[in-house]
């Protein structure tokens, strides 16, 4: 008995998907629905629920790639951490985002970093973003069905210019210009798709990413913490900002001072 | 000495691996092969030993392509060459699959040399008895490259090199006469080097030119004959110019 929203997922997933498959699909839905589906296998489910929260996004524009993410980790309704680093620095010119299992993402990203460095040493030139993402996706494919949970975006700048790939633990690998992964992704997509232009400046692009993450954290209970924004350009990546989304809220919706006297005047007597 | 040249994995007391040296001997007995790197093309030339009348000469190609942008010519045991070439071709495609990029010349040379080295450090196997000349253009930079490997598994890059029969004389000739050339000049230089040790004529030489745009192109016998004729003419003209003025001019 499938909830109806499941049918609308546009990814063409097959029957019998595990909880994580839908988690990593583009166009995810808030975690509240997930909790309902998880009933029987509570221990396993609890473990999986540990990391059900992400708002990560990345997009290519004229000047390079912007990568942004929140920093909340939740275990069901419990927020286990507000300061998780979801953007992993593979090497000085390549970044990876973390979604799904934190351990899996961290380990395999570090492993990818090692492989990239070995490639550099052996071939005397940097590996391309295409090559790096392919290395990772081949590894993940070989572990397919064994329970790895990774939904990552590999972003970087190589000889061919900016590159962005989405790689997941099913072995899927997609090349694209705009991606958002995680429970907050629908909200992030809304803001991102609306405000995106190819020829933005770096500051404009960073601001768009920051707003998109903020809006994702505003509506999705499983996303929050700090919105980090990175920029990847020809000289490598640079962290643009890391703002607490609570403070961003007051920046985007500043408090309008209402005169207190007014209320008191209008209040009905006794 | 007899005790140390059996199993390949054994060093001799004076630091030799005899099997590797014997493999180099096999290479020295193989047909002559030359490679010359130009600015926009690389030329491979191989000596063609006279083909028996009934043999279909087209089935005995000595210059082969490993990928659309890489070619190889070798001297030594042809059967070993076939095996090595097959492995290299697979590796070229495997590389395209794993990093979505064609191989660089250096990468595939390193792979072939690595393979040759592996067989010098295993039990019960003998080294590959061939030296390969590997040419190609790097897919990204477009720079032409020429590499040579040998049975010991070492490799290095060259501007021009020769291997096989009488390779020393060819190399000497190239050292004396090499200069940066392009297009047809590179072909001529390669043929001139080969003609030092091979009977002249299109049917004794096989030439292939690798260019960035067209990949590997084997020259027809007629083309080779034409170039050989040009070279002979140039040689004759040079000889005539060198002749001392006739004695009649002196009193």
TrEMBL record, chain B:
SMART domains: Proteasome_A_N
Entry GO terms, CC: cytoplasm; nucleus; proteasome core complex, alpha-subunit complex
CDD domains recorded: proteasome_alpha_type_7
Main location: cytoplasm
Listed GO biological process terms: ubiquitin-dependent protein catabolic process
Superkingdom, taxonomy of origin: Eukaryota
Matching InterPro entries: Proteasome_alpha (IPR050115), Proteasome_alpha-type (IPR023332), Proteasome_asu_N (IPR000426), Proteasome_sua/b (IPR001353)
Compartments reported by the entry: Cytoplasm; Nucleus
Domain (Proteasome alpha-type subunits): residue spans on this chain: 4-26
Keyword terms of this UniProt record: Cytoplasm, Nucleus, Proteasome
Pfam families assigned to the protein according to its UniProt record, in alphabetical order: Proteasome, Proteasome_A_N
Function: The proteasome is a multicatalytic proteinase complex which is characterized by its ability to cleave peptides with Arg, Phe, Tyr, Leu, and Glu adjacent to the leaving group at neutral or slightly basic pH.
Similarity comment: family membership: Belongs to the peptidase T1A family.
Subunit structure of this chain's protein: The 20S proteasome core is composed of 28 subunits that are arranged in four stacked rings, resulting in a barrel-shaped structure. The two end rings are each formed by seven alpha subunits, and the two central rings are each formed by seven beta subunits.
Name under which the protein is recorded: Proteasome subunit alpha type
């Amino acid at each position: 008995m499938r909830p109806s929203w499941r049918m609308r997922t546009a990814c063409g997933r097959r029957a019998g998907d595990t909880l994580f498959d839908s988690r990593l699909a583009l166009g995810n839905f808030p975690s509240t629905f997930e909790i309902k589906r998880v009933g029987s296998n509570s221990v396993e489910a609890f473990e999986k629920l540990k990391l059900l929260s992400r708002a990560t996004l990345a997009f290519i524009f004229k000047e390079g790639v912007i990568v942004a993410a929140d920093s909340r980790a939740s275990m069901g309704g419990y927020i286990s951490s507000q300061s998780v680093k979801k953007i992993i620095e593979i090497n000085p010119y390549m970044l990876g985002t973390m979604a799904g299992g934190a351990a899996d993402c961290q380990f395999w990203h570090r492993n990818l970093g090692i492989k990239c460095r070995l490639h550099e040493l052996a071939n005397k030139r940097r590996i391309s973003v295409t090559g790096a993402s392919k290395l990772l996706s081949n590894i993940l494919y070989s572990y397919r069905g064994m329970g790895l949970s990774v939904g990552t975006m590999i972003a970087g700048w190589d000889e061919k210019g900016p590159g962005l790939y989405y790689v997941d633990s099913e072995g899927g690998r997609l090349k694209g210009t705009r991606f958002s992964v995680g429970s907050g992704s629908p909200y992030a997509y809304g803001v991102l798709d609306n405000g995106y232009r190819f020829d933005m400046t770096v500051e404009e692009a960073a601001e768009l990413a920051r707003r998109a993450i903020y809006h994702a954290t505003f509506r999705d209970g499983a996303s929050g913490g700090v919105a980090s924004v990175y920029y990847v350009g020809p000289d490598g990546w640079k962290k643009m900002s890391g703002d607490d989304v609570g403070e961003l809220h007051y920046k985007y919706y500043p408090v309008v001072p209402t005169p207190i006297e007014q209320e008191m005047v209008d209040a009905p007597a006794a | 000495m007899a005790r140390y040249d059996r199993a390949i994995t054994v060093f001799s007391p004076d630091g030799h691996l005899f099997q590797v040296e014997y493999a180099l001997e096999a290479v020295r007995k193989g047909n002559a092969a030359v490679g010359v790197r130009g600015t926009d093309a690389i030329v491979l030339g191989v000596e063609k030993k006279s083909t028996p009348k009934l043999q279909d000469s087209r089935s005995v190609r000595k210059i082969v392509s490993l990928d659309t942008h890489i070619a190889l010519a070798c001297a030594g045991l042809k059967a070993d060459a076939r095996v090595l070439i097959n492995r290299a071709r697979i590796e070229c495609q495997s590389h395209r699959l794993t990093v979505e990029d064609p191989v660089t010349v250096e990468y595939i040379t390193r792979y072939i040399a690595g393979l040759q080295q592996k067989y010098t450090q295993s039990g019960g196997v003998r080294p590959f008895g061939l030296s390969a000349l590997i040419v190609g253009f790097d897919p990204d930079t477009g720079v032409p490259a020429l590499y040579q490997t040998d049975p010991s598994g070492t490799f290095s890059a060259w501007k021009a090199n020769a291997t096989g029969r009488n390779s020393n004389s060819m190399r000497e000739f190239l050292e004396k006469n090499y200069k940066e050339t392009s297009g047809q000049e590179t072909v001529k230089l390669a043929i001139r080097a080969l003609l030092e040790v091979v009977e002249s004529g299109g049917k004794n030489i096989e030439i292939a030119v690798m260019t960035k745009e067209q990949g590997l192109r084997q020259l027809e016998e007629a083309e080779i004959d034409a170039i050989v004729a040009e070279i002979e003419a140039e040689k004759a003209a040079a000889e005539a110019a060198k002749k001392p003025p006739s004695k009649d001019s002196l009193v």
